[in-house]
């Protein structure tokens, strides 16, 4: 069968010979496909999947994206990154109105929470962004099939559509981008009412008097912050000895002290033995992680935030022979290809950090490989951000990791208490920490705890990507007065001496 357009002819020339066989695209309920075959089929419409689909279409590849939720954006946009940031911002505004406005000369007699209005603002943001992605699909001519997809063969996906029908989508290259799901704990049944995942925590209809968070990772601390600001008594139960174990140790200690000042309580090295939901409250039985005397803890709501696991159930991976590891992640090579020719995987279903922006980079690189180009993702330089207040952002290695490598290094630090912009706006809690190789001054890691640290970190991300030294940042002119000057000063402290401390 001849390819019908110049774009398709170009696509066929850049695909390797093993992908040149032609497959058809068919739908049993008359869904308009606009074509009878696909170069790329993406299963999953989250950050990795929808970005991969758009990029594939931009490269001239006929593309279809399958999404079971019925709305694009995946967990991140619908019940994760976006709604949580909306509530984090709204709750922070309320907290500031209660505790900080008066010192800035803004006074009023009372302030109260209108939770339905707060939730409505969150939902409005989500709805607008999901519609925006659909608009991008139309603009880039990506076919969009709403339904749950599972493999019939390495080139065929059966889709149970949201309208009750069935579709069979065929393509030369199929990308698995189905994301991740909440990690469950033994003995805990999530009902999204009293025992909730992050999904339920984003949709509570009233502020719980007592909230227990199981897990001291990014998600648990963020959601704990939201409800703590709105009036909940928040207790975080964590099996490990530290909160956010991937965080630089020095910064982590300061971060925990900051959260404790906000009245968040921590029970570290503690495990949940059982949960009793009989009665008006949830009763948790706890004991030390190493074993010992049991205690009880009561809560109105329990948030289970013990991590996430790859979502691959029901895809039929075993049917086509796709290899996975013990954690259920799909094993891929440097080109995101699985062991089954023509089947690829990206994002949370493969090894690497489970972050939306990492999945996006995976999606672009994977499609570039399929199109005969070169893609690249450096997982050592993926930034991480905890969106509490203050935020904590990092890129590169922690001091503990550098020590473990046996590398001689220098550390430069600068507190925001000495930053003029931070002092001017009365938001000066935090620090910048720069780690550089002693001999070459090459930056190995940057860690920032401050207001808007998630925005400040990207200068450091760019610096590490280009192999910059701390002196390179120190000798770069930064606008005054800005929070970013703290990074410049920390870099100065790394290779020489800071000016303002």
Short synopsis of the structure:
α2 runs parallel beside α10 (356-370). 46% of the residues are buried. Residues 1-35 have low confidence and may be disordered.
Could you explain the architecture of this structure?
The protein is of the alpha/beta class and 501 residues long. It is built from 15 helices and 23 strands. The chain has helices at 6-14, 47-58, 74-79, 81-99, 115-140, 198-201, 218-229, 249-261, 317-320, 356-370, 399-405, 420-424, 453-465, 470-474, 485-495; strands spanning 26-27, 40-43, 63-67, 143-153, 156-161, 166-170, 173-176, 180-182, 195-196, 210-214, 233-237, 265-267, 270-276, 282-288, 295-299, 301-304, 308-310, 343-345, 384-386, 391-396, 409-415, 431-437, 443-450. The strands form five sheets. It has an eight-stranded mixed sheet. Helix 2 (47-58) packs parallel to helix 10 (356-370), helix 4 (81-99) runs antiparallel to helix 5 (115-140) and helix 4 (81-99) runs parallel beside helix 7 (218-229). It is globular.
- State the total count of DSSP E strands: 23
User: Any idea what the radius of gyration is?
Assistant: 25 Å
Rounded to the nearest angstrom, the distance between the terminal CA atoms is: 72 Å
Oligomer status? single chain
Strand content: 15-25%
Give me the side-by-side strand order of the main sheet: 1-6-5-4-3-2-7-18
Overall pLDDT: 93
């Amino acid at each position: 069968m001849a390819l019908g357009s110049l774009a398709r002819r170009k696509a066929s020339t850049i695909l390797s010979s093993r992908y040149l066989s032609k497959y058809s695209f068919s739908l049993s309920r008359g869904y308009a496909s606009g074509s009878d075959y696909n170069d790329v089929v993406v299963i999953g419409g989250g950050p990795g999947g929808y970005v991969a689909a758009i990029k594939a279409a931009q490269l001239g590849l006929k593309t279809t994206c399958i999404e079971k939720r019925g709305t694009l954006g995946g967990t991140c946009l619908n019940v994760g990154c976006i709604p949580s940031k909306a509530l984090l911002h709204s709750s922070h505004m309320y907290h500031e109105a209660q505790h900080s406005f008066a010192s800035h000369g803004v006074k009023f007699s009372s302030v109260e929470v209108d939770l339905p209005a707060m939730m409505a603002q969150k939902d409005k943001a989500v709805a607008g962004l999901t519609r925006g992605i659909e608009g991008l699909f139309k603009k880039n001519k990506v076919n969009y099939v709403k339904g749950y997809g599972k493999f019939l063969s390495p080139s065929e996906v059966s889709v149970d559509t949201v309208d009750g029908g069935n579709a069979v989508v065929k393509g030369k290259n199929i990308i698995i981008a189905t994301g991740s799901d909440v990690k469950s704990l033994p003995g805990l049944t999530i009902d999204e009412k009293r025992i909730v995942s992050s999904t339920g925590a984003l949709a509570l209809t009233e502020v719980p008097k007592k909230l227990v968070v199981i897990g001291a990772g990014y998600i648990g601390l963020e959601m704990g912050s939201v409800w703590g600001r709105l009036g909940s008594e928040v207790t975080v139960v964590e099996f490990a000895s530290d909160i956010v174990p991937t965080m630089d140790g020095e910064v982590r200690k300061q971060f925990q002290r900051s959260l404790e000042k906000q009245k968040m309580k921590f029970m570290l090295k503690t495990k949940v033995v059982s949960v009793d939901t009989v009665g008006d409250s949830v009763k948790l039985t706890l004991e030390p992680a190493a074993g010992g005397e049991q205690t009880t803890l009561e809560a109105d709501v329990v948030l289970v935030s013990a991590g996430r696991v790859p979502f691959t159930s029901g895809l039929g991976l075993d049917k086509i022979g796709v290899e996975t590891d013990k954690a259920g992640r799909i094993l891929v090579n440097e080109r995101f290809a699985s062991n089954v020719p023509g089947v690829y995987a990206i994002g949370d279903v493969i090894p690497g950090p489970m972050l939306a922006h990492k999945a996006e980079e995976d999606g672009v690189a994977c499609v570039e490989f399929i199109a005969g180009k070169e893609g690249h993702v450096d997982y050592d330089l993926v930034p991480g951000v905890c969106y509490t207040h203050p935020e904590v952002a990092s890129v590169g290695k922690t001091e503990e990791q550098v020590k473990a490598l046996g590398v001689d290094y220098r550390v430069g630090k600068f507190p925001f208490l000495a930053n003029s912009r931070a002092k001017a706006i009365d938001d000066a809690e935090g620090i910048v920490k720069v780690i550089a190789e002693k001999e070459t001054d090459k930056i190995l890691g940057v860690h920032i705890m401050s207001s808007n640290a998630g925005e400040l970190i990207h200068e450091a991300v760019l610096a590490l990507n280009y192999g910059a030294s701390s002196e390179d940042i120190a000798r770069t002119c930064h606008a005054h007065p800005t929070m970013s000057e703290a990074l410049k000063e920390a870099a100065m402290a790394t290779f020489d001496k800071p000016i303002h401390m």
